[in-house]
Amino acid sequence: MPELPEVETVARLVRPHLEGRTITGADVRWERSVGGPTAAAFRDAVAGLRIDRVWRRAKYVVMDTSRDGSRVGALIVHLRMTGRLHVEDAEHDSGKFVRVALPLDDGRELRFIDVRKFGRFVHATDPAEFLAHLGPEPLSDDFSVGWFHRALASRRRVLKPLLLDQTFLAGLGNIYVDEALHVAGLHPLRRSDRVTRAKAALLHDVIRNVLTEAIEREGSSFDTFYRTPEGNPGSYQHQFQVYGRDGKPCRRCERPIQKIVVGQRGTHLCTRCQPVPRPRKVVPTTVTPTVRLAQVADAVAIGRIHTRAWKSAYRGILPDAYLAALDEDERIRRRRAWLEHPPEGVETWVIQTGKRIDGFAVSGPSRGRDTGGRVAEVYAIYLAPKRVGCGLGRQLFAHVLSSLAAEGFHETVVWVLEANVASHHFYERAGFVRDDGHSVYADEGFSLPVVRYRRSLR
Ligand SMILES: [Zn+2]
After folding, report:
1. Beta strands 375-383 and 411-417: pairing type?
2. What is the CA(270)–ligand 1 centre distance, in A?
3. Are residues 303 and 264 both part of a single domain?
4. Which of 4, 90, 219, 373 has its CA 20 to 30 A from that of 382?
5. Are 302 and 447 members of one domain?
6. Same domain for 105 and 231?
7. Is residue 56 annotated as a catalytic residue, yes or no?
8. CA of 146 to the centre of ligand 1 (A)
9. Model confidence over 231-269: pLDDT tens digits?
10. Same domain, residue pair 256 and 307
11. Cα-atom radius of gyration of the chain, to the nearest Å?
């Protein structure tokens, strides 16, 4: 799918053929391509328009148009998956995928060619309004380090989906986000508000450098229909550090490039060059924490920690309205019911310093088809938000795992929200390895991918 460098290349290459030309008619062969009006209405709107300027905004080619010296909107082209713009002599055969052809006053035609028909070639009477939803241009002065750092900090979103969001920053797509995050050494699942100013400044410069170099190489022709208006492929694909290179060695450290799914998009990264962020804190107490099996009286502390941990750990991951609606009393009631009548094999553990309960974990037999009673599962492990990052979680987890081993389990699995960066890191440090298990966590109005980790207990 063409991104900023490809669309910029298209705009630059058609510009000398179009600026100053007048459109003499319109041959609309696929009405949906013109985005709303009938073919006749589109023809009436564009016939006689002069193309004054060809430029790019985000992933759109924009052609400012005028009639009798007065500005009359703009033609706006979104190439989407397979769209192309060609300027050809009228007799030249451009094949059967021409969706819109505009004859010009020099005997040539501007042709919008689109195999998959997802692209759009529209005439906007108010182009500013049409483009108003877009974030700043990464190569313009609007995109400053100061703005970028503040914007990342205020969004509290997972980094990669945020960078793909055209209302946040315009023009980036899957390829250039993966490339830029790798060069900047940032994990795609990192939370945007955890990016330091220094890293934001680095990512800012990397985004500009990657896009500028890709424009110089006329974009990337990788696994797409992208060709320049002259029919040539771009060449930036030969510079790719991670995109499409899963399984191949990282060009910097030689660890194999991994492919994961982030926000439904295939995502390429090197887990050594782009480590998941580590929390850094020290234990704020001199009292040694202890781990024990929970009693019914612990239900209040556990329900409270459970609710607060969700609101903290899943902020930016689960919908805000959903988290706001979580009810502490309801969770306390459910925890009490579990403690009074635990399901077969299920154990709840608490870790405490002095009289204060810092966190809890729930374990039992695996709910998956990991049969034979040999595979355990840690269903939940949560700390009070203020106790995260002190090592208490690791201590509690180690205790639970050794108890499961003593009970005869051979292996333990855990299920983790794909977007929950901190948990991926936690389990990786505890010796867990991600396997191919995947599922979804769904509730009212959302569904999110969940992945499985496992570790031998022997
Ligand atoms: Zn690497």
Report:
1. parallel
2. 5
3. no
4. 373
5. yes
6. no
7. no
8. 28
9. 889 999 999 999 999 999 999 999 999 999 888 899 999
10. no
11. 28
- Pick the catalytic residue: 3, 6, 109, 418? 3
Distance 413 CA to ligand 1 centre (A): 27
pLDDT tens across 191-242, in order? 899 999 999 999 999 999 999 999 999 999 876 678 888 888 999 999 999 9
Rounded distance from Cα 181 to ligand 1 centre (Å): 12
Task: For residue 325, give its domain range.
Answer: 290-456
The residue from 21, 56, 59, 454 that is catalytic is 59
The residue written with tokens 């330091």 in the block is 196
* Overall pTM > 0.90: no
Among this protein's residues, is 369 annotated catalytic? no
Contact 450, 441 (CB under 8 A): yes
Distance 351 CA to ligand 1 centre (A): 37
3-state SS class at 388: coil
The reply to whether 3 belongs to the active site is yes
Residue 305 and residue 201 share a domain: no
DSSP code at position 81 = T
256: CB partners within 8 A, 6+ apart? 246, 247, 248, 249, 250
The domain tally of the chain equals 3
Specify the amino acid at residue 312: S
DSSP character for 230?
Answer: T
